[in-house]
Amino acid sequence: MSQRTGIGGVTFDVGGTLIQPWPSVGHVYSRVAERHGYQNLPAAELNRRFSSAWAAKGTFSHSRREWQKLVNETFRGLIPASEELFEDLYKRFGTRAAWRVFDDVPSVLDQLRARGFKLGIVSNWDERLRPLLNDVELSRYFDAFAISIEVGAAKPDSRIFERAAAALGLEPGSVMHVGDTVEEDIKGAHGAGFAAVLLDRQAGKARDSEVIETLQALPALLGKPLHGS
Predict the structure, then answer these.
(1) Of 98, 121, 153, which residue constitutes the final position of a domain?
(2) What's the pTM?
(3) Does 227 reside within a domain?
(4) In a domain, 52, yes or no
(5) Angstrom distance (rounded) from CA 190 to CA 177
């Protein structure tokens, strides 16, 4: 994979790229349900149900109402998803208790900052993302945040990428985006004029894009930054 030159900024997707639900979405759902009196709901089954509900969700604006529909669908036929249970889940996923930072993230972000790259977030998320990134101690790395609920546009819409480039003070062609989905991250970034690389941690996704399997491979892709040290 060839080295990219002329890149002065790097933007990142969040879920699946920088952090992951921990131990899994199903585990978190099961533990929260247990606090509301529903014992021994299998995490594997809840993971399957959540994945199915997520795949069938269609257009998703990351509003509380849409999250509640997703939670209701995940629990449908197992337990009644009360307002109290949903609120508990919603709050928990807004804190580090439900997430794990991938091991390769801090060291790579440290390297990129040390080399003078401007760093940003481009994420389809809601109002919980900023405090969550602060809670998992990642906020300090980033110069700009383009979050769908704030921008009013979600990946792959080019507007969310354009917002990030403007906030970084860079032209889109001098920004590389890193994410774990082809449709939202790679095609969206290319549509906005960004360079892009697919992070495929499971080594099983489409290979019609530049692909890395760990963030540790990212620094070697980047040439000297436009405003490097």
Answers:
(1) 98
(2) 0.93
(3) no
(4) yes
(5) 9
